[in-house]
Q: What sequence folds into this?
């Protein structure tokens, strides 16, 4: 098998916030009845977490389950574990109306770090950061493309986009986080 | 700026996260309908100055279609509700009637 690489080779930029491509991540779209017992079991086995409530992300170490819509989850696992996780999810949901798809290679992941990280995102996403809850995943747009992000650390956000627009998203993040571009200068 | 709360995920989405889908509650006329009915279904739309019921899609969010009642003149939003609804909910209609006493009502 060929060696998998992320779209931008882990490039990073340091402005008033540090933005970086985070590398490969196993991502699996799961659709079905999120309230079913089979779904609860399948998600627990895949990520170690509960099925997330609406707009929430449940994180356990390097795995996570995020609520994408009333009938869709995004299951995240280490990149190398994605295919095994797909097989396990398929088995756990057999007989249920469901869809499981490995979308790892269709996505790019970025981190935005620093105490001013929200300011880099505020300029790109029409999101009220004042009402953004802990443990919330916010699907939105970053300038002209679809994106989703959540708070992944004290001063860190993780943002996901389609891989086909990774260069565009990194361009946005780099420009948005340039020194002098703070929204609330100290 | 128009802000609509998606009834499926609860996000207060501003206009650019949404896709407009035109008039809500259209009755579909397909095979077996008269030419007039089919033409009306395809082309005839309400265009009120005032209370309007519309389809919107939370395109940059959960992806679901939902319905909204708003005033086309002032952009006041009366409410949003599930797309699995044949006509505007009674409580929403009452709320609109209270705010717009001259509204002719939903037909
Ligand atoms: Zn929504």
A:
């Amino acid at each position: 098998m060929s060696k998998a690489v992320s779209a931008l080779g882990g490039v990073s930029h340091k402005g008033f916030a540090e933005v970086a491509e985070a590398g490969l991540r196993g991502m699996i779209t799961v659709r079905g009845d999120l309230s079913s017992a089979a779904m609860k079991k399948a998600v627990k086995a895949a990520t170690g977490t509960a099925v997330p409530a609406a707009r929430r992300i449940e994180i356990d170490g390097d795995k996570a389950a995020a609520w994408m819509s009333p009938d869709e989850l995004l299951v995240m696992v280490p990149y190398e574990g994605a295919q095994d996780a797909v097989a396990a999810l398929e088995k756990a949901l057999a007989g249920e109306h469901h869809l499981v798809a490995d979308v790892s290679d269709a996505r790019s992941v970025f981190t935005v770090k620093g105490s001013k990280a929200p300011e880099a995102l505020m300029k790109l996403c029409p999101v009220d950061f004042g009402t953004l809850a802990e443990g919330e995943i916010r699907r939105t747009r970053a300038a002209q493309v679809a994106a989703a992000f959540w708070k992944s650390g004290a001063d860190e956000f993780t943002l996901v986009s389609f891989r086909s627009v990774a260069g565009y998203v990194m361009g946005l993040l780099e420009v948005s986080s340039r020194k002098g571009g703070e929204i609330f200068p100290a | 700026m128009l802000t609509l709360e998606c009834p499926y995920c609860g996000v207060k989405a501003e206009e650019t996260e949404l896709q407009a889908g035109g008039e809500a509650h259209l009755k579909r006329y397909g095979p077996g309908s008269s030419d007039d009915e089919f033409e009306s279904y395809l082309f005839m739309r309400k265009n009120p100055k005032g209370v309007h019921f519309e389809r919107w899609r939370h395109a940059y969010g959960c992806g679901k279609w939902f319905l909204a009642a708003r005033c086309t003149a002032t952009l006041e939003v009366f409410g949003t509700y599930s797309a699995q609804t044949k006509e505007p909910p009674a409580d929403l209609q009452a709320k609109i009637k209270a705010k717009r006493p001259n509204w002719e009502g939903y037909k």
About this structure: DSSP finds two helices and six strands in chain B. The interface with chain A takes residues 8-14, 16-17, 60-64 of chain B (CB under 8 Å).
